[in-house]
Task: structure prediction
Amino acid sequence: MATFKEFRNNVKPNWCPGCGDFSVQAAIQRAAANVGLEPEQLAVISGIGCSGRISGYINAYGLHGIHGRSLPIAQGVKLANRELTVIASGGDGDGFAIGMGHTVHAIRRNLDVTYIVMDNQIYGLTKGQTSPRSAEGFKTKSTPEGSIESTLSPLEIALSAGATFVAQSFSSDLKQLTALIEAGLNHKGFSLINVFSPCVTFNKVNTYDWFKENIVNLEQFPDYDPSNRIAAMTKIMETNGMVTGLIYQNKERKSYEDLAVGFKQEALSKQDLKLSRQDFDKL
Ligand code: SF4
Result:
């Protein structure tokens, strides 16, 4: 069985020292090992942004896609090879701005993909502009007088769209983050894991200390029931979206794979995969 070290490769990340994305990478590698995967059973598909580089830093199948399109690619990979465990990843700009349409419909579709968003509330790769996750009044080069747009709440949107797994964590909490990614990988259906992952270079407001002061960990609420969708929405709104932990999981709703005609067939063998295009058209 592979250890987390076997999910490392020899590519040195070029993230800034202290970037939260390092811990997200480590958590993915640990979670993959903990659920018993081998590197050749995992595909990591990423979008564009600093966080999008993550697919190149993990020893697994990987594809660094185009801006906002990690989810269409990840779903295509899963549809083409249902034997693979598929992780999609990217930043809040990638997934909640240009890619938001894909995010909502991937949630509705409930295909078995784990989507990990590194949410630093700014565009880091392009040197610090306001993102959909930036707070109102947030000053950057693109909003020198402060953002006048409301802050997008991905957790509320996910629940409204029919998500079956919604979690949130903090890159500094490696134990919680690893456990949530494991839970997402084990979930049968689409899982959204939003991770507060500070950009130490361009976001001087939402720092590690700021997150530590503002995060509300669900461990504080031993009676919290993650199968209760109304309670989940209430907790997100009560905490202004700062709640961390497993916020909602619906184990009853069937995944796309369970419902789609054709998906119940046995997986294609290697011999089947050598069939010609004409043979495939007859399937
Ligand atoms: Fe991380 Fe920000 Fe540096 Fe990008 S610019 S690598 S998000 S710290």
